[in-house]
Design brief:
CATH topology of the largest domain: Immunoglobulin-like
Number of strands: 19
CATH architecture of the largest domain: Sandwich
Mean pLDDT: 90
Shape: elongated
Radius of gyration: 19 Å
Distance between the termini: 31 Å
Order of helices and strands: EHEEEEEEEEEEEEEEEHEEE
C-alpha cells in the first residue's frame, strides 16, 4: 500500500501538539470517579519510550463519556496498576503515571472500577525506529524523502515526524501510514512555511492495537518509540 502523508492534528505520544498535550490542556475541573456512571468512563492507556530521555512512560487518563470529557480521579476502592505497581495520580495534569529507566518490552494495565469490574489490557512496545544518520539538510523547495531505519510499518502502526525550524512557531508535522511503508515524505508545501536556519527532526513510531477490555464508553491503547532528535539545516 502506498504510504500517505498529511498534517498531523492529534498525537499521542512526545510532540508539542500530541494527544498528551491535548489531554493536559483539557485537564481542569477534575471530578472523582464516584460521581459518574462507571460504564461511562472513557479510558486512555499510553506506553511510550523516548530515546532522548531513555525513559519509558506508562500513563492513563480517565475521562467522562469520551476523549474530551471531564477528567476523573479514581475514588477508592477503584484502582489502576501497571505491571502490578499502583500508578500515582498527578493532580496538576489529571493523569496517572509511572516512569521506568530504559525501554520496556511490554506492560499490562489493570483497571478495577467501583462496580468491581476489572479491565486488563496488555501492550507491547512499538518497534525501534531511527532517522537516517546522513540526514543533515532539509530543502524547503522540494519534497524530501526520508527512509526510516528499522522495520517497515505493520498493521495498526504509523510514523509521526516533526520538523522544527529556528523560530518557536516554525513547526510542521507529517504522518505516514500504510502496511509496508518505510519512508516519510516531507511535503514542500508545508516545509515552505518554516523559516530557513538550523532546526531539528523528530521521528516517532506508534502502535495502536484494539483495546482488549473496555467500558461501554470505550477508549484506546497505544505504544510509541521516539527516536533520537537530530539537528538539520533547513534551507
Amino acid at each position: 500500500m502506498k504510504p500517505t502523508t498529511c498534517l498531523s492534528i492529534i498525537k499521542a505520544s512526545a510532540f508539542v501538539c500530541s494527544l498528551f498535550v491535548l489531554l493536559t490542556l483539557t485537564s481542569c475541573d477534575k471530578e472523582d470517579s464516584d460521581s459518574v456512571n462507571q460504564d461511562k468512563i472513557y479510558t486512555v492507556y499510553e506506553f511510550d519510550y523516548n530515546k532522548n530521555s531513555d525513559i519509558t512512560y506508562a500513563r492513563v487518563w480517565f475521562r467522562f463519556g469520551n476523549l474530551l470529557g471531564t477528567p476523573l480521579e479514581l475514588k477508592e476502592p477503584a484502582t489502576i496498576t501497571f505491571n502490578g505497581d499502583t500508578m500515582p495520580f498527578k493532580s496538576s495534569l489529571s493523569y496517572y503515571e509511572l516512569q521506568f529507566p530504559g525501554v520496556l518490552a511490554s506492560g499490562t494495565f489493570v483497571y478495577n472500577d467501583l462496580n468491581n469490574d476489572t479491565y486488563t489490557n496488555t501492550i507491547t512496545m512499538a518497534k525501534v525506529v531511527d532517522l537516517p544518520a546522513t540526514v543533515d539538510t532539509i530543502v524547503r523547495s522540494i519534497n524530501n524523502q526520508l527512509t526510516c531505519v528499522g522495520d517497515s510499518l505493520g498493521a495498526s502502526e504509523k510514523f509521526e515526524t516533526k520538523v522544527a525550524g529556528p523560530n518557536s512557531n516554525d513547526v510542521q508535522y507529517f504522518t505516514t501510514t500504510g502496511v509496508g511503508a518505510h519512508t516519510v515524505t516531507l511535503l514542500s508545501s508545508q516545509l515552505s512555511l518554516i523559516s530557513p536556519g538550523m532546526g531539528t527532526l523528530k521521528l516517532e513510531r506508534e502502535y495502536k492495537p484494539t483495546l482488549q477490555q473496555k467500558t461501554l464508553a470505550g477508549g484506546y491503547i497505544s505504544s510509541s518509540y521516539t527516536a533520537l532528535e537530530r539537528a538539520a539545516y533547513i534551507q
